[in-house]
User: Fold this.
Amino acid sequence: MVDPLLPFELEEELDRDYLVELAQLQLELLKLQEHIRAQGLRLLVIFEGRDAAGKGGAILRLSQNLNPRHVRTIALAKPTAIEQGQWYFQRYLHGLPDPGEIVLFDRSWYNRAVVEPVFEFCSEAQRKRFLEQVVDVERMLVEDGIVLVKLWFSIDRDVQAERLEARVRNPLRRWKLSPIDRAAQANWDAFTRYKEAMFSATSSESAPWTIVRGNVKKRARLEGIRHVLGRVDYPGRGAEGLRLEPDPEVVLRAT
Assistant:
């Protein structure tokens, strides 16, 4: 058993095969980033999922060796009083990628589809209005040339419980705990209900949802990167012997 106080960098050094594969995929990400920069493309990746599903870890591994001048991670705090009076999407649109840039949303406008209704931070009318508008908003982004990738990291209930407990035990990770995290298990069924309604209403042809099965963190990170790499055709794609097609047992389209 790994010591819960062991920093993740040291923990991952125990798995050399994983680190080699991760490094190979990160080299591919550098090729992708250079192509996006050179061609003035725009890539937006949305990371969603339950609390402790592995979103932050996946974002870190995807971005850690990219050129920081051309990649941003957006993780917005709760809306201010002014933002609460704005059009719901307004504060998120400021974070859209510029030409040549990759933007990673650590949670996104989809807060209104799942988290907010579970905790009654929005009304049912506001949730329904969001579901009606978001497909059109995303269609316009895609039609304007943004490459939009929507990832939902999925975990089982017992896995979430274990990870949340690990955060409690580990002072290096305790900052991740919030009142919402602490209520995650009690609200499991409500999250499931709203998540399924979100998939049904917002997984469109132009912006489909992709599920990444995240019970095994390292596997989810690698396969998630493979999926992102497959969304843009870039020069020099693929080193000899490197698998770039995502494992269909881990990465699948939401239905």
Summary: Strands lie at 42-49, 71-74, 101-106, 146-154, 209-213, 251-253. The chain has one domain: 8-253.
